[in-house]
Amino acid sequence: MKEAILARYDATLRGLGRKDRLRTLAPRAGLDFSSNDYIGLAASKRLGDAVSTAIARGTPVGATGSRLLRGNAPEHEQLEADAAAFFGAERALFFGSGYIANFALLTALPQKGDLLVLDELAHASMHEGAQAGRAEFKLAAHNDVDAVEDAITRWRAEGGMGRVWIAFESLYSMDGDRAPMESLVALADRYQAFIVVDEAHATGVWGPDGRGLAAAYEGRDNIVTLHTCGKALGASGALVTGPRTLCDYLINRCRPFIYATAPSPLMAVAAREALTILSDEPMRRAQLHERVAFASRQLAERCGVMPSGSQIQPLVIGDNSRTMAVAAGLQARGFDIRGIRPPTVPEGTSRLRISLTLNVDEADISAMVEALVGVLATA
């Protein structure tokens, strides 16, 4: 009886295995070439001390409820005030994760009768929000401004009368390339459109003081930005920054914000300290950029890899099985590099996602590239 109940799930797992797409959990091991801890804050003394001090003064671990009930802690409000000032926005809201924040934004803000145009390679959370939301949505070819405009003009020609929303990542998580920010903002202005920009992989790394690639546009009435706290900021959760009116609207109409238990006040403390570190320790970003440049030269010279220009460097292999074999070979040599397969990336583009952080130095990078050359030759 039990086997019959579980049969269809078991069949799905076997099918994934036949396609070399079965996922399993693996422990951390080896040098870090896979995390999003880009500037090495997750285990930093300053973040640890900030949390320890907060615990000592009585800050609770759990929020105990929704922000609209008793879960609204002073630490949440302090973080949001500091974040709004740091990023140059009217207001900020703290969510439990970047995934939830993206989903929340695209289900709550675009209204019925609106159009949402989404970059085809944007985070899965954006796609989920677009599908679950009330607005009509269209996918646009990656980083193709003309495709975005075509979607808007066709919708208008077919009688679309609502607002247009354009959603994209500023720095893409699997390719490491940047959005054409200036052109997309200009396009939004021409069509009186809103922009939702996910700065997940840019916050803390790019822009003045690590404020992201959209820093020059924060504070505008038509831009909403997501800054995750669980990547370069070394904590967890996410900050949504934007016009006060839209943030107030989220408080009143955004179900994932209204009905979720608030994030831990201790994570608010950690994220707030991380923002201070971004201002106090610019050398972290400078050191990371040096390592990105060094790795780019090494990978180009030894492996023929086209540099992405960021801390995320993909090496597209294509075949699922070979991708995972190369990843396993590197892991066996002490380098934690993971294989990425569909549906996370498009069919036929399975790859290694090499992430550069301050958790490794130039000697580690050279050793990794040497190992990669050897593994690619035999896998």
From TrEMBL:
One Gene Ontology MF term: 8-amino-7-oxononanoate synthase activity
Taxonomy, superkingdom: Bacteria
Cofactor(s) the protein requires to work: pyridoxal 5'-phosphate
One of the GO biological process terms: biotin biosynthetic process
Any single Pfam family the record assigns to this protein: Aminotran_1_2
Domain called Aminotransferase class I/classII large: residue spans: 31-372
Entry protein name: 8-amino-7-oxononanoate synthase
Species assigned in the record: Mesorhizobium mediterraneum
